[in-house]
Specification:
Layout (H helix, E strand, L loop, with lengths): L1 H26 L6 H4 L17 E7 L6 E7 L13 E6 L1 E2 L10 E6 L7 E5 L7 E6 L4 E7 L5 E4 L3 H19 L4 E3 L3 H4 L3 H11 L10 E3 L2 H12 L7 H9 L5 H25 L2 H5 L1 H12 L11 H18 L3 H7 L5 H12 L7 H9 L5 H13 L26 E7 L4 H18 L5 E7 L4 H10 L8 E4 L5 H5 L7 E5 L5 E5 L5 H13 L14
Parallel strand pairs: 1-8, 10-11, 12-13, 13-14
Antiparallel strand pairs: 1-5, 2-3, 2-6, 4-5, 6-7, 8-9, 12-15, 15-16
Amino acid sequence: MKKFLYTCFLALLCLAGSLSSAQSRVAESPRDSLVDIGFSQRQEGAIPSAREGGMLYLEIDSPNPPDTLWVTYWEHLLIDQKSVTPGISFPVVGKYGNLFEGSIQKKVYLCELPQGITDGFLSIGKGRSTLIHQWFFSSGDRVRIHFNLVSGKTLFGGPDQNFYRAQYGLDQLFAEEQFNRDPVMVSESRKSLFQDSLAERLYREAQSRPDDLFVRMKVLVTDTERWEQFGNIAKVPVDQHPAWRLLHKAQDSLTAHQISLLGGRVAGALLSSGLTWASMGSAIPENDPTQYQMLQDWVGQFGLEQLDSNYPLLIHSESRLIRLTATLQNRQFLEVWKDFDSPLKDEILGTYLLENFNTLGAELAPLLDTSLSLVESPWIRDKLETLAAVYSVPVFSGELFDESGSPVDLNDFTAKTLLIHFWISGCRFCIDDYQRVMKALSDRFEADPDILLISVNVDSRESTWKNSLESGRYTSPQILNLKAYPGRGIAGYYRIHSYPQKMIVGPDSKVRLQAANHLDSDYLSALLVKISTEASPSFSLPQTSNQ
């Protein structure tokens, strides 16, 4: 029966594919700028027709409902990173309802949907207070949603209630699955986790709890233990997951296209869960053909060649699958990508480059050049061209200051090779990186007139930076210490969001490398010397960048 459900779903995909193509042609017709349209609030006194345009009616029942809801939408969404696909956000001010509309003592928020979007994404709320996270929507949707923040009930109404109810149902299903899953900690040593007696006692108490009611932490140390986590997932046929049953029950009230979209969301969630552990235990299938075949058989159940849903988790998971395959087959990402059968190939390649640009090092520029000749989607080409342009011009130094508060322009150091180390206070990895890498490089190049080491702090407050400088744990006076601010200037331009992070600028003031992954002092030392003496360095990052 469950096999039938999955087969039925795949059959719906074929019908949905033709519908999706037709809708895509409509979406490509000329229209006004989305930035100009945005979300707008319904004017008081306006009397809508029966089906005049897309609208969200949101109602919140709470003792302290927010005055304003933040609504964010994306026409295109690759990954959940604001620096890649930031979306467009608007505040929607709520007003208390009234007796005659059945909304007395509730806060009501009305917003019109932007026009010209066939399959977009929608989030409502901000931070941990998000009510809706990346749900599908189209410009013509009309739906009522009631959130009772006291009882926890969520109610739906309006012509498109079934589609939104199904998305809410998937949210609840996956959240419940996470709630009942054993927490897992990956560590290099069990002994190091239980050095303090309290941690050991609490862990032993947790292990003694009855497993019909309690979840209990698993500590995974070896590759074999991590691969076993994947094996446990792979034992259960993909089509037996409850999410498929939810879609099957909803299929009579949804269009084939909506089923296709939500099917991609389910596939993305399940694929991501399995690939997490398959990647961590990749040493096992790398050395055992039978285990590698098990991975391939499991992936084959998803029918990825038929899934054209542009759900970001599906795109991200297929990108991860190609990276894992490249590692296991000792091939390059682009080689595997060319052979990969998926309707989402442009999105997958765009995701790989935009998500991993700061780990590809000298490989990035030629990979971007090749990719631009392969990608057909205009909006993805635009993003890749923007990324390529960042590294084809002299280094950008916006909002960069020295210890006295004076602005600093890195282009003033033309003819020098710069190693820039980005860090923040409280980051133990930043401390470790300074002690193990930057300190050694500082001693190595202190007297070299052609190589300059620069430390750039990206704390929100200058006072925090100054205190960290005085501590001597993050940098030293032998290094040029500068200040930037998160999301602005040089940090915003180069999308510096993880720390520590390195950047090398050549004597021509062009960025030659940006790396968020760990690079040891010997590798960086050799690279700095090579860049400082050659116009076009031939170095590339170690092959571990595919992992």
